[in-house]
Structure formats: C-alpha cells, structure tokens
Specification:
binds N-oxalylglycine; 8-stranded mixed β-sheet; 4-stranded antiparallel β-sheet; metal ion binding; 332 residues; dioxygenase; binds nickel (II) ion; DIOX_N; metal-binding
C-alpha cells in the first residue's frame, strides 16, 4: 500500500528549494502579521505569565491561596502560561526531547513505515497536515501522533521502535504529566469555587481522560515570512502541555495582536483548552494560537492534549458557573 499522499515538509526542506510551493503561502491578509520569529521573541508588551507551582500543595492555606490566585489570574487572562516547579525533572524532560529528536533524525523512508492513513481513520502515526480547504492550504510541519495514557488504551505497536528507549521514556513522561494534570484540575476547580475533584471528574477521571502525544517537527523553511507551522486555532482539549527544543515559534493572539512566547528553560507551557473554557462558562480562556517557522533552526515541540473521549461527554457550562447575571455562553 502507498503511504499518505501528503508531502513531507522535511523532504521539501532538504530538497534545497529556495521558494516554497504555493500551497504553503498564506493568504495576503495573514502575511501582514507574520514576522521574523527571533525578532518577535525579543519584543516587549504583554507576555505569557510564569506560574510557580512550588506552593500549590502547601499545608499553609495562605501560601497555597497565593499560588491559586496566580494560576486563576493566568487562566482568566491569556489562558496560557509557563509552569515552573511543576515536579517533572529536567532529566526526564531532556530524555523526552532526545528520544523524539532521534526518531525524527531517522531517514524519511524509515519514518514512512509509521505513516498514518487519515483517509481510513488510522490517525495515529507519522503524518503531515492534509489540505482540508478548497485552497489546498498546507502547513510547514510533519508530526508523530499517538495516544499515551491511559496505559490500557495505548497501541504500543505503532509507537517508534527507534530509538529503543522511546516507549519507556514517553510512558514515564505521560504518567507524570497525568499527575500534573490532576493537580492543575484540582486547583482550577478550587478557583471556580467547586469541590476539588470536580473538573477531573467532568473530564473523565483517571479511566477516561485521554493524553494524546503529538510531536511537532517544523523543518527549516526557506521563506518563513510566507508560511506557518500551524495555522491559528484553539485546542479542543481540556488542558494542553507543551515542551519544546528552545526554538521560538508559538504565538498567542491577545488584544488584537500576536505575542510570541519566550523560551524558558524547562518550563512546561500549559494551555487551557476549549473543554475547560466551556465547563467554566468562559471564565477560563482557550486562546487562539499559531506556530511560526524560521530559516535557521529546526523547531520541535512535544504537545500533550488532555481530552475527554468525544463520544462519552456532552460539554456544557457547569451549573455552578452559571447565574442570572452570567447566563450560559455555550450551548450543550
Ligand atoms: C498544537 C500547537 C504549538 C507548538 O499542536 O496544537 O498549538 O508550539 N502547537 O508547536
Ligand atoms: Ni494548539
């Protein structure tokens, strides 16, 4: 069987072309907002806040309350933040980055053995964005996508076999992120005046909440001012956690402008996704974001989407977040 028909961004990048195919060129209106990411990263103005989670489980209620307030402010403001002192070791995050990078260093023919087949519903594996609009618009990205948690729902047979440590390292990272997700969901519940376990339960708990790993590989792009790595979108997840290789790219649309996330060593970037925005009746924000590419450095990011299984959950604002003065902003 032939693999996916999507061209690999990596093969275009390594072909030595100086101008990118027209399918990758963004519409004229959008081009005006695309700049050099290294220049953008240096800019002042509103920034992605940093949330120190050190005190989030403090015995001292005052200390804990201060930490909760910071988290609440960030979740109600940009809806995206750098988490530090999140409890996942630098060493484990480095290993996650190494195994993912090693996989993408394999020749394309090797990676093709893991190709997904979106047409037949096989969405896990190595892939590229297929054109889904009449314009045939494409993005400058290849990726690897697989379910990482709960462990009994994984299909380990489709995970990268090279490098050999991939499965062990990624499994451990997913387990630890699942723990972090629980802590954050508890904290966000308290911020909404709910019982601690409420949001966790609403999104499916330990049994049902899915952690989907997507390794995003953005090759160097000869005309980065004309393309995007990922186009503007919000995440449908409850929460999204992002690691990256310290190359800037992520931009957030805030107050009418694109702001560029700075690279903070060993922080984990966390997004509030649409699911939590809806459950909180819009109190927490799922921000529009996108990814720029550049000429000089390959960018890799490790995105973990924490999301309830689509078929099991009907999402609507929790009754406690709705009142006469705050009517539901989202239909079920
Ligand atoms: C995504 C995404 C941003 C990044 O995969 O949904 O927004 O930094 N990625 O790669
Ligand atoms: Ni996203």
């Amino acid at each position: 069987m032939t693999s996916s028909i999507a061209p690999r961004a990596e093969s275009l990048a390594s072909s030595g072309i100086q101008s990118i195919p027209k399918e990758y060129i963004r519409p004229k209106e959008e081009l005006e907002s695309i700049g050099d990411v290294f220049e953008e990263e240096k800019k002042g103005g509103p920034q992605v806040p940093t949330i120190d989670l050190k005190e989030i489980e403090s015995e001292d209620i005052k200390v804990r309350e201060r930490c909760l307030q910071e988290l609440k402010k960030a979740a109600m403001g940009l809806g995206v933040m750098h988490l530090v002192n999140h409890g996942i070791s630098d060493q484990l995050m480095d290993r996650v980055r190494i195994v993912g990078q090693k996989f993408f260093e394999l020749p394309i023919e090797e990676k093709e053995k893991y190709a997904n087949d979106q047409a037949s519903g096989k969405i896990q594996g190595y892939g590229s964005k297929l054109a889904n609009t009449a314009s045939g618009q494409l993005e400058w990205i290849d990726y690897f996508f697989h379910l990482a948690f709960p462990e009994d729902k994984r299909d380990l047979s489709i995970w990268p076999k090279t490098p050999s440590e991939y499965t062990e390292v990624t499994s451990e990272y997913a387990r630890q992120l699942r723990g972090l997700a629980s802590k954050i969901l508890s904290a966000l519940s308290l911020c909404l005046g709910l019982e601690e376990g409420r949001l966790e339960k609403e999104v499916g708990g330990l049994e049902e909440l899915l952690l989907q790993m997507k390794i995003n590989y953005y090759p160097k792009c000869p005309q980065p001012e004309l393309a995007l790595g990922v186009e503007a979108h919000t995440d449908v997840s409850a929460l999204t956690f992002i690691l990256h290789n310290m190359v800037p790219g992520l931009q957030l649309f805030y107050e009418g402008k694109w702001i560029t996330a700075k690279c903070i060593p060993n922080s984990i970037i966390m997004h509030i996704g649409d699911t939590i925005e809806i459950l909180s009746n819009g109190k927490f924000k799922s921000i529009l974001h996108r990814g720029l590419v550049n000429k000089e450095k390959v960018r890799i990011s490790w995105t973990v989407f924490c999301e309830p299984p689509k078929e099991k959950i009907i999402l609507k604002p929790l009754p406690e977040t709705v009142s006469e003065t705050e009517p539901p902003l989202f239909p079920p």
